[in-house]
């Protein structure tokens, strides 16, 4: 065995080794990467060569043993896995709470896909998602079949009859009647990771299905801060559901006698997502981590440490940096391109009481609010390079930052004040593209798919043209409304306006109705404010408050009706946009945590969070500052509910026209002479009050709450007795 050390004459030149074989045949190999080959040295003898890495040193081995060369090249790749560790979690959540302020700031959740049933025609390859009603039937019957099969000693028939004359064979996963179909049942966990170990390799494959961050502050401009953007419906891709939000795959070769890591394969994929931030969230997060100024002694100690570093020789610092920054070798490193939808607003910030704050709210909001600005950042890739951890992080950061800076023009073209023309043009392009592309893709698969592709293409074109134009005008008028509302100098008016803006309408009718109501109330509030604002100011601050209220009333007389007109146009156009593009807003995973002032932090209760949200939304937040939520009982699910606070008993219902909750009737606890009692229909609430809080007069002095569930009756009666006793003490 012979060994020869070699160094490059030109380290910056190409790392290529050229050697001559039989009959002066030249062979060339790139020594940056692992490779293998062979050549003839004479008529009969063949020599094999292999290039591999040994720490930081590249080794080229020449041998007549083909097995030795092949083993040195494929070490770790063809080995069987000795140990495999698999982690699977359906989901998890992380809540960030500011304890002193009794407020939850954000909630981060990782969730699974849920159980998905898909069906496919016999002989076809494209699976379609089963309708929700049929999916629930299939899952219920499938779980019943599995339970029977696990406990029965005799064979259980896999053929099951469902509603609508549907017959299914769960063993073969196919539908037999009324038409033959193949079924596929999938469940993607929220977090899945697999780690495989061999003698000379380490393999990691991990997936994160869905990541969502919700803003839990009251009255957020954007309820959802971060969430994946669902891919558009297409004939080519079908309705197979969302792909994992993040996926990483790593293959590492383990080399003995060295700390250098060689990554044969390193790939990270991140799906399209949106980021929506407002100043209220930024201020809340900054409040969680207040900056503490250094004491004089701490500053002196830090100065002494810096002085000691400055006295060290430069050679020593360079040697320490080189020794501590270990380099690794990456055969194939690929970080996926990023497509990010960015939205930002100065809204949500409450601590701007000064004149500067007023100017920022009136002018700055108009000029800086932007919605759905798209950044497209290209992929980052490196092949056959030594990189330290610090170098890698710096290069990745510079790569994506430089691309983002090159696309800063989309920020200007995406401002709401000019209607986001960039988004409008991109949308029109996408609509025309779908009109031609989707029918063509469908025609390849069959006549039914052609009709579906034509429908998708036409709907996309109409949605992006009509919806895009309406959305552009809605953004312009919405930005004007922001500025006019800020100029009214009325915080209560701005708060009520934010409440309406932050609750998207359920349909076109509700959107138009709410816009019309806002127009009327803007005129009414403007006129009444001339008389009410001076009185309110005098009651709070005396003569000074009277004149301040007089000024607010005079400004509001112009600003409020004008803002109402502008908001009417903005809301109507936004409702048309939502109806045209058939878009669905991403909803929060759960309501904000309820944190009573006297209880501190405690485990999350969905029931309490749901009840507190109803109290917060009731009559535009009229009772949230005076009452404390205690309990609630559903009378008609999602429609009518009995709400108990520390001061009153309320019977409320959801307003189907304008959205939100409204009071049908209610009593203070002091107006109920006796503890409510159970009757046949439900619970009877006596009262000394002769008129209800709502619009309709009462012919008797009590109310009957219709409840048939005995547990609900007992719970409501216990809460009434407890709260009445507390109110009288």
Main β-sheet: number of strands, strand sense, barrel status? 7 strands, mixed
Mean pLDDT over the residues = 78
Structural class: alpha+beta
Report the span from N to C terminus.
Answer: 98 Å
Helix content bin: 25-40%
What is the annotated CATH architecture of the domain at 606-728?
Roll
Report the count of strand segments: 32
Inertia-based shape: globular
Number of helices: 15
What is the CATH class of the domain at 606-728?
Answer: Mainly Beta
Please state the CA-atom Rg, rounded to the nearest Å: 34 Å
Portion in beta strands:
25-35%
Q: Strand arrangement, largest sheet?
A: 6-15-16-19-20-22-25
Features:
Signal recognition particle alu RNA binding heterodimer, srp9/1
